[in-house]
Amino acid sequence: MGWLTGIPAWFADPANWRGEAGVPTLFLQHLGYSAAALGLACLVALPVGVWLGHTGRGGVLAQQVGNAGRAVPVLALLGVLLLVPGFGRTWWTLILCLTLFAIPPILTNAYTGLREVDRGVVDAARGMGMSEGEVLRRVELPLATPLLMNGVRQAAVQVVATTSIAALFAFGGLGRIITRATGSAGIDLSAALAGTLLIAAFALVVEYGLAWAGHRADPVARARRTAQRRAVTTS
Amino acid sequence: MADGERAVRVALLDAVEPDGAAGGSVPAVPLTAAAPHLLSVGSLSGGVHTATLPDNCLVRNDWICPLYVQTRADVLLEAVEQHLYLVLVSLLAGALLAVPLAVLAHRVRRARGLTLGVTTAIYTIPSLALFILLVPMTGLTSTTVVIALALYSLTILVRNILVGLDGVDPEVRDAAAGMGLSSWRTLWRVEAPLALPAAMAGLRVAAVSTVALATVGAVIGNGGLGNLITSGYSSNFNAQVLTASVLCVVLAVAFDLLLLGAQRLATPWRRGVR
User: Fold this and answer.
1) Which of B17, B81, B154, B253 has the smallest number of CB atoms closer than 10 Å to its CB?
2) Contacts from B196-201 at CB under 8 Å and sequence distance 24+?
3) What is the ipTM of this complex?
4) Are residues A73 and B128, on separate chains, in Cβ contact within 8 Å?
5) Which CDD domains match (chain B) (predicted)?
């Protein structure tokens, strides 16, 4: 059980908090890679998914992208890309790979979200004389917000997980703490578990943080909250 | 270069792909790690010196190399075997646990929130972390990987089975009750068949993602084909990385198609629907 007492000792050791291999640096790397990839994926996948969903075209494409994203192992794509001359072990190869894995959930959810908006509501909006842009902006997007945010949240959690796997290829990020502690010589369990706790905590904060943000951002839920508050104050 | 790895490259590889060395974008490889696959080729031909190496796809470090598949068939087979073992056992364990959990969550309101909450939390933990988290209990074994993978597939399956059970028309349930079926017989005769398509869809997703996730088991030396990818990467062995990667995708697609076939067989009444 020495490994158990070793965990607080690992966290207490100032050497683990300083410099290139310190927790703050690794965390910032992890955050940086993840945020960059998530941002890029949103830039690409949100407009495409929203457009496909709005027009109702390319449903098969949206589904297939999601399936392909699950079938290709991160380890496989990253391993191959890193060895291809021209890509190599550079930060942008990693970000490209992370982005590719973040696109499917965002795209699929955006498509589904737009498609699941009640057609009657959309027709009513058109009947009221709204232009296509207005229908999209004022009717479809607000109603699709929960699923849009759901996709972004799934992608964010996926990116955080994928970034930690990148440490198997000697990239930075919190996964480095684990891969540094494991090797052919065996495993430094305390250090590995310390890294595990940090990664798990990071992922859980991202998941629940974005779930909360998604709930706050949902215009329908917000309107309901406001109505409730009004009802309470008037009664 | 990260972690003080020295950028020692095999001279032979430099000579073959001179553009690769430029710009420092090619991974740093310790000579000891880069040597193995070349050495074994050398020993096949009776000499270790680079000068006597024959000109074949292994020596050229080609991506596609039939000679690699030929000479390393046993290693590949062993990796595929472990991969299949990891996927099959974890899927089976996940499914065996998911069915009662989903039925419980469907019938007991409080169990629903708890089940969904706990499984979602587990699913959120990245695979690299979950594998390590289990090491104190089961060590650096394939059992550790199986348990983690089973937990992930459990989450996918519980959610999908619940979707299926929730989707059963309440009137159908009423009709079953009206016909005098007990609650368990309703579950078995009415709800289970109606929920089967959603459950099978979940099983397909779980199988495909388990095939992919199993590779990460390489962090504790039990990743099936993932072991070949990481070791191939660290020794700059293109053929091994690509072959193992392609095999992973092939396995995933094969699982998906097999389960699709099973789903068609198990739900004959849906044939023609889609």
Assistant:
1) B81
2) B196/B164, B196/B263, B196/B266, B196/B267, B197/B164, B197/B263, B197/B267, B197/B270, B198/B160, B198/B161, B198/B163, B198/B164, B198/B167, B199/B157, B199/B160, B199/B161, B199/B164, B200/B259, B200/B262, B200/B263, B200/B266, B200/B267, B201/B160, B201/B263
3) 0.89
4) no
5) TM_PBP2 (cd06261)
